[in-house]
Amino acid sequence: MDRSNFDIFNQIALHLLVRLFESFPNYLAVDARALGFDAIKMKDDEDFDEAWELLAISKNSVSWLQSEGFIEVEGRVVDDQINVRLTLKGLTLVGYAPPTVQDSRFENIADEAKAALVEGSRSAASDVVKGLFLRAISYIPGAFS
What we know:
Helix content: 40-55%
Largest sheet: 3 strands, antiparallel
Number of strands: 3
Strand order of the largest sheet: 1-3-2
Strand content: 5-15%
Distance between the termini: 35 Å
Radius of gyration: 15 Å
Number of helices: 6
Shape: globular
């Protein structure tokens, strides 16, 4: 696959966050393992082991986003099929601000994220994800303590 786990995580997380932002406040039915195949287009010459690695990283990426409080999983997980939506922390991560917040620092980055996904470059996805987490650190008091 010739990608680091961080590269794969960045693309999966960005793909999921954009989808959840677009469906908010509704829950979105997601297959936690297959999400990686939606986010990362594998080449025909990539082998079976790489596909299994992608499935594992995908499921663990969703788990990490949930454990860090960026997404909420509704109900029980059955065969990796889950219903997910963004939490307030997740909305803040993607740049959403409540209407009462009049701060120019809060910008919706959904368009930037979509462009990075369309571009398909690892560096574009990585840059957007880094920017997301840096914003979250500065906007969410106590979120990372």
